[in-house]
Every structure is written in C-alpha cells, then in structure tokens.
Specification:
The chain is α/β, with parallel strands linked by helices. The chain has two domains: about 140 residues, NAD(P)-binding Rossmann-like Domain (Rossmann fold); about 180 residues, 3-Layer(aba) Sandwich (Rossmann fold). A seven-stranded parallel sheet has the order 8-7-6-9-10-11-12. Helix 8 links the parallel strand 10 and strand 11. Helix 2 crosses helix 10 and helix 3 packs across helix 5. The longest helix is centred in the middle third of the chain and has 19 residues. Bound molecules: NADP nicotinamide-adenine-dinucleotide phosphate. The site of NADP nicotinamide-adenine-dinucleotide phosphate has 31 residues, from helix 5 and strand 7.
Length: about 350
C-alpha cells in the first residue's frame, strides 16, 4: 500500500479520543433494524465495547429521536436521514453501503464519512462476477438455449489461461474479483484511477490505459464508483475502442454507461452481450429497452448486498477506533467522490 492509499484508507493523523460509551443512531433501511440490532450487539460484545444503540423512529415507531445525543450515524441512502445539521455532537457517519454517491456531496455532512468494505460484500461480488464471467467464457447460453438436435462439437471454449478479462475499478471489490478469477487461470487486466500494482493483474490507468484494456479484453467487468469523472465513462467513443464482441458486466453503477450508446453497440454486435446489475433508475422501469434486448441480461442490483452479520464487524471495528482516537478505516475521499 502506498502512502497516498494508506492516507485514504486509514484517514489522516490520530484524532482525539472519542466518547467512551458512544450513542449510535441506526438510520439504515427501517425493515432491517432488528437484524442489524442483533448483529451489532454481538459484534460490540465480542470486542467488549460499550455503546448505546438507538433506532431511528422510522425503524422503531414510538421511539423518540434526540439528535443532540447522537455520536455516530449508521447511514444508508434508503434510510430516513439525509439532513445531518440537527446532530450537534456527531463525530462520524458510517455508510452501510459501499457506494456513497448519494451522500458524498451532502453539504450538511461536516464529519468524517466511512464506506462499507467487508467480507460479505467482497465475497458476494466475487461470486456474482465469477459466475457471469464463467457463463461468458464457457458460452453457456449457446447450450442452455440451443437444444435443437444439432451436435455442435466445434464449440469448444478456450482454457481460462487463453481468455483476457478486464476489471475496470480495482478497489476493494475489483481486487476481490481478481482474487477469485486468478486461480481459475484467466489473464487479468486491471484499470484504476491511480497507478498501482496488484499481484497477477496487468494494471493500467489513465485514458491510454483504458483504451489498451478495452482493446484487449474479451470480457470486461465494471466495478467503478459513480463520480463526476466516471459519469458516462463507457460512451460511444470508449465502446468503439472495445475488442469486437466484448462481453460486458456492469456491477458498479448505472451512471458509468451511456445507455443509448450501449444499445447501439449491442444492436450492431460490436458489444456481444451485457450483463447489467445497476441502472440509472432503479428499479429498472418495466418498459426499459434493456429488459427485452436479446443481448442484455438484467439482474436487480443483487451482485453484492450488505449483510448485517459481516458488516457489523466493520462497524464495531471503526467504533473501537473512534473511541480510542485512532484513524477510521475506509474513509471516503470526499474530493475524489468515493
Ligand atoms: P473502491 O475500493 O473505492 O474502489 C474503486 C475503484 O475504482 C478504485 O480502484 C479506483 O481507483 C477506481 N476509480 C475510481 N474513479 C476512477 C476513475 N475516474 N478512473 C479510473 N478508476 C477509477 O470501491 P469498491 O468497494 O471496490 O466498490 C466499487 C463500486 O461498486 C462502489 O462504488 C459501488 O458503486 C459498487 N457496488 C455495487 C454493488 C452491487 O450490488 N452491484 C455492491 C457494492 C458496491 P484507485 O484504486 O486509483 O482509487
């Protein structure tokens, strides 16, 4: 890890000690409160941490919210809090989601923001992507949907070692995907914002790096965050750089893709197929052309879900850091937007 990466991950210098028995406000999805409560209580107890857990009234009707008693907010964009200004003694906001585009520019948020990086998200994303990469690699659809009596013995797939797979976005999730694909043997290409090295992955950055990666890969996986810089990254120009027939998996954010340009490239066969898990509008409207396009598979934002049982461990670790005055894990770089 470089110094710059360490600063981004672990925050700046140690800060002053936090309250010894902090109050955490659960402002995640209201219907998940009881599951979170159980997981958080277990994770806090396992560390010998004392904390007061309070649900937002949206999650536990009848409870009263005292904003001036809250030290930490557990936040999700599907939860009830979007104005942080009433929380006068707030020390930090822990996002329960990995993607923070809905909160990162919030002007009422004046305390450190962390995002979710945990074993459940990493494993879930790695399994989802590996499944879809193998589907493309083995051309499974040709056999599943082609049971027509013809013996096509010529359809022998190459070995994974002869298949180039690109991962656009080599952060926590991109690296988890690489770690699962690598032992299968795929030739991996990676693309990130800053130069970095990752074992077993030919890494690239910058515009020239993206052109090289797209030109070489037969399967590309997008795992980038939604930021002003990544908006419409895969537009008509970038898609035209892709190796003909590229199979694309987008499990990052819908905003990475210029939808009209993708549909045009799919219609012409320049992009062979797309598996899309994330969309500009979610749920994807029933009349959206992606649903009925023969070269698109839609999955309903299920690639990686935050699971309280694993995520609570990270919340508790960061709470322990806050109490001890140690730098928080997984701090969001608000200027970069992720
Ligand atoms: P992360 O650790 O912050 O990694 C982000 C990666 O994207 C880093 O490698 C970063 O480069 C790269 N990047 C950012 N901006 C870039 C740019 N302009 N050009 C090139 N590369 C750029 O995030 P993560 O935990 O891996 O999560 C990635 C995204 O997955 C989240 O933001 C979220 O949107 C999405 N997600 C989706 C699901 C789902 O269910 N579909 C679930 C969880 C998360 P550096 O390494 O140089 O910083």
């Amino acid at each position: 890890m470089t110094d710059a990466e360490r600063r981004r991950t672990d925050g700046p210098e140690p800060r002053k000690k936090g309250p010894q028995k902090p109050t955490l406000l659960y402002a995640g999805p209201p219907d998940e409160w009881l599951r979170w409560q159980k997981a958080l209580e277990a994770a806090l107890a396992a560390r010998g941490l004392e904390a007061r857990l309070v649900p937002h009234p949206a999650a536990a009707p009848g409870t009263e919210l005292q904003p001036d008693e809250i030290d930490v907010i557990l936040y999700a964009p599907t939860g009830p809090v979007s104005d942080f200004s009433p929380f006068s003694r707030l020390r930090a906001v822990f996002s329960l989601w990995a993607g923070v585009e809905k909160i990162v520019a919030n002007p009422t948020l004046e305390v450190p923001l962390t995002r979710m990086v945990d074993e459940g998200l990493r494993q879930g994303m790695a399994e989802y992507v590996t499944g879809h990469v193998l589907r493309y690699h083995l051309d499974l659809d040709r056999h599943i949907f082609g049971q027509d009596g013809l013996w096509r013995h010529d359809l022998v797939p190459p070995l994974a070692r002869d298949r180039q797979v690109a991962i656009l976005g080599m952060g926590a999730l991109g690296q988890a995907v690489a770690a699962m694909l690598r032992p299968i043997g795929f030739r991996l290409l990676g693309w990130s914002r800053r130069p970095k090295s990752v074992d077993g992955v030919a890494m690239h950055h910058g515009a020239a790096g993206l052109a090289a990666v797209l030109g070489a890969a037969e399967i590309a996986v997008a795992l980038l965050p939604a930021t002003p810089e990544t908006e419409n990254l895969l537009d008509a120009t970038r898609l035209s750089l892709a190796r003909p027939g590229l199979r694309l998996i987008n499990a990052g954010r819908g905003s990475l893709i210029d939808e009209a340009a993708l549909i045009a490239a799919l219609d012409e066969g320049r992009i062979g197929h797309a598996t899309l898990d994330v969309f500009r509008t979610e749920p994807l409207p029933p009349d959206h052309p992606f649903w009925r396009h023969p070269r698109v598979t839609v999955t309903p934002h299920i690639a990686a879900e935050t699971r309280p049982e694993t995520a609570a461990e990270v919340v508790a670790d960061n709470l322990a850091r806050l109490i001890a005055g140690r730098p928080l894990l997984h701090l969001v770089d608000r200027a970069a937007g992720y």
